[in-house]
Amino acid sequence: MFFVKPILWLIFLYNFILLPTAFASVGIFFKNTFFPLKIYYLKGENPGPTLMIQGGIQGDELSGIICAQLLTRAKVKKGNLIIVPRANWPALFLFKRQLNVDLNRRFDKHYAAFYEDTLAKAIFYLASLSQGLIHLHEGSGFYSAVYINQLRNPKRYGQAVIIDDKNYNNINLANLAKDVLKEINPIVLPQKYKFSLFNMMTFSPNTLYPEQKKSLTYNVLKNYSKPAFAIEVSKHIKQLDWKVKYMLKTVQKFCHKLGVDIFICWDKQTDSLVKNWFKQKISLKIIPKNKYVYQLKIVKESDHNNMSQVGLQFGDIDIDLNNNEVIFFPWEDKFIKIIIDGKVVKTYKLKRSVFNIRKSKYPILLYSVDGKIHYAFPQEHIQLYKGQTLIVYGLWPNTGEVINIKGYAPINALSNTGQDINEPIYLLKAAFLPKYIKNLKNKAWSFEIVRETKNLPPYKWIVEVKEPKLNTIIFSNKNDIFSINNTKLKSGHYQITIYPDSFFILLDKNPIPYYNQDIIYFSPGAHQISVRNNKTFDLIKTYNIAVTP
After folding, report:
1. Which of 155, 205, 469, 476 is the most buried (most CB within 10 A)?
2. What angle do helix axes 268-275 and 240-257 make, rounded to 10 degrees?
3. Could you give the CA distance from residue 139 to residue 160 in angstroms, rounded to a whole number?
4. What separation in angstroms does the CA of 205 have from each of 106, 445, 501?
5. Going by DSSP bridges, is the β-strand pair 46-54/75-84 parallel, antiparallel, or unpaired?
6. What would the pLDDT profile of 73-122 be if each residue is shown by its tens digit?
7. Within 10 Å of residue 65's Cβ, how many Cβ atoms?
8. SS3 at position 119
9. Cα-to-chain-centroid distance, residue 521
10. Distance of CA 17 to the CA centre of its chain
11. Distance CA 393, CA 442 (A)
C-alpha cells in the first residue's frame, strides 16, 4: 500500500519544473491553519553563507512584504537565501499591526498563548539556519538623531537602517551599515528621503528602546551571534513603488556586504507589477455541502503576478476562510470579502437563506475545526487536539443565542460579554483562565461551552483537548519500503507516509518542510530528520539516518 504510483512521479516532476519562482524551493509551515508561513529557499550557483530576509512581521507594513516577495525571483550568484515575505498573514489579512500581541515582541523567551507565539518559534528556527538576518519594516516619519520637527526626530523609525549595537561579539554592525549607506544614499532621489543609521543601543541599560529586547533582530544577534539589521522605509512616503524599489536596492547592498551576491533588476515589468499589485481578476465559488454548509473558494481567473496572497473574509470572522466550510443560518445575510495582501478588492452580499429547517428536541451546536463543520448535542464531549482552531457558529436553527466558551476572553476585547460566537480560538492551554480548565490524563485538558441565552436552559458541551501522538513514518519508492526507525536507507527519491498527518519533517538544515505524501530525496551520507507538530511547531523527535549509495 505504500508503493509510489507512477502518476505521483509525474506530479513531482511537473511541480518541480513549474515552481512559482524560477530559482526557489517553496514550502509552508502550518499548512491548513489560519496562519500559514510560506518559505522560499534560493540556493546559489556558488557556495556561500545563507541569509534570511523577512517581511510582514507586522501586518500594516506592505513595502517589506512586496520587497521580500520580489526577492524570491532573484538570481543568486553566491550563497543562499531564506525568504519569508509574510511572517504574519492573519495580521496582514486585516491590515493591522497585530491581532493578539505584537509578533516582534515574542522572541525574548518561550511563549505559548497565541498563534503569534507559534509563528515566533518557527521564525526563530529559520533564523538559526542562516548566517545573518535582514528584517524589512515600514515605520512612521523619518528617523533623525536630533529633533528637527514632528516628522523628523529620534522617535521616528522611517528611512532608517536599525542596529541594536555598534559592535557585538566581533560583529561590527555600525561599519557594515555605514558602508551600505555610503553606496545607497547617493542614488536616493529625492535626497530628503535618504536613509539614516539608527543605533538603538539595545544592550545598554540606558537604552531608550527597552522593548527592542523582545525583538527578532536583537535576539538573533544575542542568541546566535549573527548580524541582524532592520531596514525601515517611511509610511509617510505615499509612493509604494518608490519604497519597494529603494528597499530592494538596499537589501542587495546588504547581501553583498554579508557575502551573498544576488541579481534582480528594477525594470518596467517590475514597476508595473508593483503598481498593479491589487489588480487581478478573482471570483468567488460557493460549493454546497448540504442545505446549510458551504465551501467557499477563491478562483483566480488571471493572476498577473502569482506573487500576492489572496484571502476570504466571511461575515464577522476575522481570519482567512478561503477553501474552508462555513455555515449559513436561516434568514441570515452575510457579506463575503476577497482580500489581496490586506486590501479588500471585492465584496459579495449573500441574501437570506431560504430552506426547510431541521427541527430537534434539543439545540444543536454548530462549530468548525480547522475549517471543517461539525455538530454536537448538549452534554456531548467534543474531542480536539492542541493547536487546532475552533470557531463556534451558534445553535441551530436559532440566531441571537449567547454561547460562552468558559475561560476564554479575547485579549483585545474592550469588555467580556460572554458572547464567543464567530471567535477563532487557537487551542493552547495558556489562552484560557486556569480556574476554568480541568486537567486530564496524558497532558490532556478540558473546558466547557455553555449556552447563556437569557431565559433559556443553560445547556453545555465539554471540549477535551489532547496532544496528538505520532504513530509511524514510512519512506517508499517503486522498489523499497523503509521505516524511519531504520538506521540505513538507500539513496533516492521516496514518498513519505506520516500517520497521523498532523506532523511534518525537516531534513538536515533545509528550511523546506515535508508533509504526508510528499516526495523527498535522500543523498548518500549522514542525515538528521526532525519531526514537528504542524499546528504548534513542537519538536516531537529527531532521527539520525545513514544513507547508502
Report:
1. 476
2. 130
3. 9
4. 20, 41, 47
5. parallel
6. 999 999 999 999 999 999 999 999 999 999 999 999 999 999 999 999 99
7. 30
8. helix
9. 26
10. 25
11. 30
* Strand, coil or helix: 257: helix
Between CA 417 and CA 498 the distance in angstroms is: 42
Q: How far apart are CA 495 and CA 484, in angstroms?
A: 12
The whole-angstrom separation of Cα 40 and Cα 25 is: 6
Nearest to 52 by CA among 86, 85, 83: 83
51 beta partners: 81
Name the nearest CA neighbour of 38 among 13, 72, 3, 9.
Answer: 72
Over the stretch 496-521, which tens digit does the pLDDT of each residue have? Answer: 999 999 999 999 999 999 999 999 99
Nearest to 489 by CA among 500, 497, 481: 481
The C-alpha cell that represents 498 in the structure block: 506520516
User: Mind giving me the DSSP string for 444-474?
Assistant: -EEEEEEE--TTS---EEEEEEE-----EEE
User: Please, how many CA atoms are within 13 Å of residue 341, restricted to the half-sphere of its CB?
Assistant: 23
The sheet with strand 334-340 has its strands ordered as 310-314, 334-340, 343-350
Q: For residue 101, count other CB atoms closer than 10 A to its CB.
A: 17
Q: How far does Cα 21 stand from its chain's mean position?
A: 19
Residue that the C-alpha cell 551573498 belongs to? 260
Q: How many CB atoms lie within 10 A of CB 486?
A: 13
Sign of the dihedral defined by the CA atoms of residues 487, 488, 492, 496, in that order: negative
Nine cell digits for residue 420: 464567543
Q: Rounded CA gap, 321 and 404, in Å?
A: 22
Instruction: Name 267's Cβ contacts closer than 8 Å, sequence gap at least 6.
Output: none
Q: Measured between alpha carbons, how far is 128 from 435 in angstroms, rounded to an integer?
A: 37
Coil, helix or strand at residue 94:
coil
Print the SS3 string covering 470-488: CCEEEEECCCCEEECCCCE
Q: Report the candidate in 20, 224, 207, 196 with the shortest Cα–Cα distance to residue 126.
A: 224
* Bridge pairing between strands 228-234 and 133-139: parallel
Average pLDDT, the chain: 91
pLDDT of 303 reads 61
Pairing of strands 481-483, 46-54: unpaired
Mean pLDDT of 168-197: 97
Three cell numbers written together for 89 = 498573514
Distance CA 452, CA 419 (A): 9
Cα–Cα distance, 322 to 34 (Å, whole number): 9
User: Helices 62-71 and 240-257: crossing angle, nearest 10°?
Assistant: 50
Give me the percent of the chain exceeding a pLDDT of 70: 93
Task: Dihedral sign for Cα 82, 494, 530, 503, please.
Answer: positive
Cell readout for 25 is 524551493
